[in-house]
Fold this sequence. Notes:
24% helix; ten-stranded mixed sheet; 12 strands; alpha/beta
Amino acid sequence: MSPIALPKLEEARLSSNIQGVAPTLLSIIRVPSSIRKLTVIHKDVGPDSDSAVEAVIPRLGQACSEIPGPRYLTVTRPDGRFQVPEGFELTALQDSPGANALNTVPQNSQVVTVVSLHTPPPWAPEFRDASLPSPNPEHWAFCNVQEIKIEHVLPVTFWKALSRIPTLVKLEYWVTQGDVGFLEALGERVDWKGDSGRCEPFSSLRVVWARFQAMDSEHEVEYARNLAAVLDETRGMGSTHLESLKFIGCVTVVDEDTLHLLRSAAAEVLWD
């Protein structure tokens, strides 16, 4: 089937609870570069179905082939209006949101949103991550991204995939109790070999903002020290010094020894 051009389309919302419908629609329509808002809502129907995000994200690139890949992304939990326990909401912006939160959408900005919903059956809770995104630098949503804000608890597999995006400069993310996904992915720099045929993990990353979320106060400093240690180790392998390292939502007061470690990893350190 030939693609369906929609040259005057300004706003569209595609929503389906039936497996395969949203990806199929995205594969046959072509939204114009002038579109202001596109929302895709796809509900995964269970562990026997294809992953919603693996089906939707590549097709999104087909539908948006006339639009440059977004420079700014947010990955959050679905909000309360969906009443579904698991999933994610990805919002792509072309225009900079400025110095504040990425989820502050600039006026008249072009916005593309993908909501992937998933209800894991009670007998198979391991499928809770089935609708989470796997960043791929070849896909439209991730091929040009420079800044990402994450308000979600994501598995290590997500973080390792995210580390392969060569354009990523700024990362703001949640840190929850026991969450070491970013640390593990960043640590892969240590084992990276220049001739391995793959991109250096987080090769362009210069700004890191960690936002503590429901953390015990004694673990805040521990996490900061662990991050500083990984950054110091990767810098020893030739990686670039961070420009800015910021910790947000801190309850405890950071000690001078920890600050010294952090300042050895970044030109600017903020403990807020």
